[in-house]
């Protein structure tokens, strides 16, 4: 019989705009007790936007945690209170790539670092694209972000060569290749995103979950 890892107590250690950190006391097997620190996260969405030439929209963005620029999919936090995942994905595609899509489906859901963080991301496939005006970015990493169209097969090779390292991009690119090659089926956008983190959203009340 599987052990029930019950939370015996919980303490909030840090409450920052984008993340929080808590310490949980857990009941462990063999009547043991252990503490686990958990990074709370807002959750995220990302988009593999594919044009008629089988090229995908990608951005090159500075990530301070690794002190380098990474090639990534258009993506962002689910930081608007009660915003649906698909609405967040559409918003991010406009903001980061200046694109809208007539066709949407779900490629995959991933937990990025389950050993210590509750971050989960839903990755969408967007097709039948239309270019729209991209809002101006000011004063943060997005103001320095580079946009490029990359062939899907080339992107797969960049994953295998270690040139694309962002875990969400890796999962999305490989899933998109399977689906668009006829080796897999994308899911409907109405399917629930059960992995979406709720810890921060339950605690904060304002419309912008980063500032509440």
TrEMBL record:
Residues 185-212 are annotated as: Disordered. GO terms for cellular component: cytosol. The lineage of its organism: Bacteria, Bacillati, Actinomycetota, Actinomycetes, Mycobacteriales. The keyword Heme does not apply. One of its GO terms (biological process) is nucleoside phosphate metabolic process. InterPro entries: NUDIX_hydrolase-like_dom_sf, NUDIX_hydrolase_dom. CDD domains: NUDIX_ADPRase_Rv1700. It comes from Corynebacterium ammoniagenes (Brevibacterium ammoniagenes). Residues 39-172 form the Nudix hydrolase domain. This is NTP pyrophosphohydrolase. One of its GO terms (molecular function) is hydrolase activity. Keywords: Hydrolase.
